[in-house]
Design brief:
heterodimer, A: 395 residues, mainly alpha, Butyryl-CoA Dehydrogenase, subunit A, domain 3, 3-stranded antiparallel beta sheet, 4% strand, B: alpha/beta, Rossmann fold, CBS-domain, 2 domains, 4-stranded antiparallel beta sheet, 24% strand, binds adenosine-5'-triphosphate, binds magnesium ion
């Protein structure tokens, strides 16, 4: 690493970025106090929170990170920066929770909305942590452990009710049962889209590789689909499906209509195709002719070739295509409410419609978290399934 | 035994093999050599049915290879492919053990065999067993490719430029090892190379190919002595006489040498006696019979035998081993400006000598025939 050659002279850039971000965060309001759901908020900076412990902790940590940026980047210094980042995140959240609870105490509708200062501070913490983890000689399990800490720090107080003063939590309580069912629908819809795309996409990729004549049309088609904006694609689906539904009562009976789940599912599946087809194609293309020839020359039968050569090399690549598709699908599903399907995205659009940004945050956060968890989980799974010689650390 | 009968192989319109016939005897090393694109690899692939001939037949032990099940056939023929082709997702041990695995050997037997083979090709099993192809140098990968072909101990080996990526020094070591091994294992080997020296060193018969045809085949020494046409003459090079010497081993052309102990040299110089110059050099040994120096007859002297002053020698600079080639012996003779080179045992004892006059005569005889 270049940072190791610094020898205390030039600062480590990523750390410095984190410190600067945090510096800006200190000048911005940590949260806004609102009398009720749609009231304009009064901004409150960290220094106005009346939580001296929080102010001191944050300032000390920023200073520490600033000093560490100029130290030689040894393993120990890296871990110190990671710890500083984790503590910074925790301090901000605790300060927010403590000050927010005090502010809303005794009121009925008042709440606090995390503001730019808070979000910038969170970003600064993650820059510190990620910058120190990246490229460091840290075991993958340690990276996962570090990554899980912020979630624990958030979820445990949230479940314990310590974050109840926060506006997104209030929005959540108002819709708790719907939230759970929407989350479930969001998950199965994304999963169904990816499953469909896998069933269609893998054979399509294989055909595109084996039949040179099919290669261009296949890729032209799926690349074309990607360029259609999602809203337009959803819209395009309405007319033909409405027609089918009218003409065939059977289809109507199983819930296929111009709006709702059916068009959304089809559109999501189409979007999920590209990474899967592309990786299925690549997985075969990377198997070198010499390897196949060697296998054949040693007397492998067609099935042995599949079992010993083609599947072990191709499957991890196909799986990483599915991983990309899954993360994409989770994000795309958020747009589905626009054609009458529900799910987490519905909260986002409701929030926008009602001018309630907290509701937007409540809808967006789970989508982001879901994407991150699914992405990590699949990365670990793929790494475990890959033959050692081809294995890379999950990224 | 492998026999090509009027074999033609066409790729679409191009004729890669144009009616070739030749026979490779049991336990023989046959080297196919020729310019790039002349059809060497194609010929190999016709033997293990990676390709089928357009016409004609390839016989293995008298039966057309077309009559064997291709997978069974290939498992019984070790195949080192030109581009190595190690399986990238398997480590060295798994790569070497792949044919035994196809043949359903037990794991313990496979592992034992793998280590044995790694030792054989000069790679430490402890160090290399667990490595992956991406972690190997080109030369190491090639050697693993050879080990893989040997794994199931097949009676027939097809080797397509197996040492092409190995440095000259290690290549020579591998060639010598291969020669030693072959004397023990006695496999039928078809070996493709671009390297004429390699062909000379290893071949029982050489087949020189050009544009899908055989231009000459025979023992290396014969081909070097009598190139069939201008192409072969050019191919074997202007130094073919020298190359030809590489076909002969010192042990087969060694003469008895005359040695005297170091302490007798002075006496001998004062009172020359002996065979009247039949021995071109008198080798001087120490108490352990190891070579330490020499006395050389002085041809300018009037008397029948007179010696020049005693000269000290280093055995490993002037001496050759019995297994060395005459080419090496000649190089030693010329290097020292002598008329003979001593043949030295591993302990430095003088076993005999190779004389310049014998080499000249051998050369004359070869050309004259
Ligand atoms: N699969 C193929 N399709 C068409 N032509 C081929 C094919 N394989 C080989 N050829 C042609 O056949 C001829 C002989 O090829 P071959 O691979 O046997 O040469 P080679 O003697 O092994 O050459 P090199 O020393 O470069 O390995 C070449 O002209 C080559 O272009
Ligand atoms: Mg070749």
């Amino acid at each position: 690493m270049t940072s190791q050659r610094n020898g205390g002279s030039a600062p480590e850039k990523t750390t410095l970025l984190g410190v600067v971000l945090m510096g800006v965060a200190l000048l911005r309001p940590l949260y806004a106090f609102k009398e009720n759901r749609v009231a304009l908020g009064e901004p409150v900076t960290l220094f106005e929170t009346g939580v001296p412990f929080g102010v001191i902790a944050v300032c000390v940590l920023v200073l520490l990170a600033g000093i560490l940026a100029f130290a030689p980047q040894t393993t120990r210094v890296r871990w110190a920066k990671i710890a500083a980042g984790l503590l910074l995140f925790s301090s901000l959240l605790i300060t927010l929770a403590v000050s927010g609870s005090a502010a809303v105490a005794g009121t009925e509708f008042a709440r606090v909305t995390p503001s730019t200062g808070f979000w910038l501070g969170v970003l600064a913490s993650f820059v510190l942590i990620q910058g120190s983890l990246h490229g460091a000689d840290v075991r993958y399990s340690a990276k996962i452990a570090v990554g899980l800490i912020p979630f624990l720090v958030t979820f445990v107080p949230a479940i314990a009710g310590m974050l109840d003063s926060l506006a997104p939590m209030q929005e959540y309580y108002n819709r708790e049962s719907r939230f759970v069912s929407e989350l479930g629908t969001h998950l199965w819809l994304s999963a169904a889209a990816v499953l469909g795309a896998t069933v269609i996409g893998v054979p399509l990729g294989v055909v595109a590789y084996r039949r040179k004549a099919a290669e261009r049309p296949v890729f032209a088609l799926i690349n074309g689909i990607q360029t259609v904006p999602s809203l337009a694609l959803f819209g395009l689906m309405i007319a033909p499906l409405a027609f089918l539904s009218r003409e065939f009562p059977l289809l109507r009976a199983v819930g296929i209509r111009g709006i709702g789940n059916a068009p959304a599912l089809i559109a999501l599946t189409l979007y999920a195709l590209l990474p899967i087809v592309r990786n299925a194609y690549t997985s075969l293309a990377v198997i070198q002719g010499s390897v196949v020839e060697a296998g054949k020359g040693m007397g492998m039968s067609r099935t042995q070739m599949l079992r010993y050569v083609e599947v072990p090399i191709a499957v991890p690549i196909i799986l990483s295509g599915i991983r990309v598709s899954t993360v994409q699908a989770i994000g795309n599903t958020a747009v589905a409410p626009l054609i009458g399907a529900g799910w987490l995205g519905a909260f986002v659009f409701q929030g926008i419609g009602q001018g309630a940004p907290d509701l937007v945050v409540m809808g967006v956060l789970p989508i982001v978290l879901l994407s991150v968890f699914v992405d990590r989980g699949l990365a670990i799974l793929i790494s475990a399934l890959s033959p050692t010689g081809l294995r890379e650390a999950p990224t | 035994m492998i026999e090509f009968q009027d074999v033609v192989k066409q790729y679409n319109t191009q004729t890669a093999i144009d009616d070739i016939s030749f026979t490779i005897g049991e336990a023989e090393v046959c080297v196919l050599i020729g310019p790039s694109g002349c059809g060497k690899t194609t010929s190999l692939k016709l033997i293990n049915r990676m390709l089928e001939p357009s016409s004609g037949a390839v016989l293995l032990n008298g039966k057309p290879v077309g009559s064997f099940n291709p997978e069974q056939l290939r498992r019984g023929i070790g195949y080192v492919i030109q581009s190595v082709g190690l399986l990238p997702h398997m480590n060295v041990a798994e790569n070497v053990g792949i044919v035994p695995r196809l043949l359903k050997w037990e794991r313990s037997r496979r592992e034992k065999r793998t280590d044995e083979l790694l030792d054989l090709i000069g790679l430490d099993p402890g160090l290399y067993r667990g490595k992956y192809p991406a972690q190997l140098s080109g030369g190491e990968a090639q050697r693993i490719g050879v080990a893989r072909a040997l794994a199931a101990d097949p009676p027939v080996l097809l080797m397509d430029e197996p040492f092409g990526a190995v440095d000259p020094l290690n290549r020579e070591i591998l060639q010598l090892e291969f020669a030693v091994l072959q004397r023990k294992l006695r496999k039928t080997v078809v070996f493709v190379t671009h390297d004429l020296d390699e062909a000379i060193r290893l071949a029982d018969t050489v087949v020189i190919m050009k544009d899908g045809r055989i231009v000459q085949q025979g023992q290396p020494a014969d081909i070097l002595a009598h190139p069939a046409d201008n192409f072969v003459r050019q191919f074997v090079g202007a130094d073919r006489a020298l190359k030809r010497l590489a076909c002969f081993q010192v042990v087969d052309h060694m003469q008895s040498a005359e040695t005297i102990p170091r302490e007798q040299t002075a006496k001998r110089q004062q009172a020359p006696n002996g065979d009247g110059g039949q021995h071109p050099v008198l080798w001087v040994t120490n108490a352990d019979h190891a070579l330490v120096g020499m006395l050389e007859p002085d041809p300018d002297h009037h008397s029948a035998v007179a010696y020049r002053p005693y000269v000290e020698l280093h055995a490993d600079e002037v001496g050759v081993r019995p297994v060395a080639s005459l080419r090496e012996a000649l190089s030693r003779i010329l290097g020292q400006g002598l008329r003979a080179a001593p043949v030295i045992s591993e302990e430095g004892m003088v076993l005999g000598e190779v004389r310049l006059s014998d080499i000249e005569e051998l050369n004359q005889r070869g050309i004259a025939r």
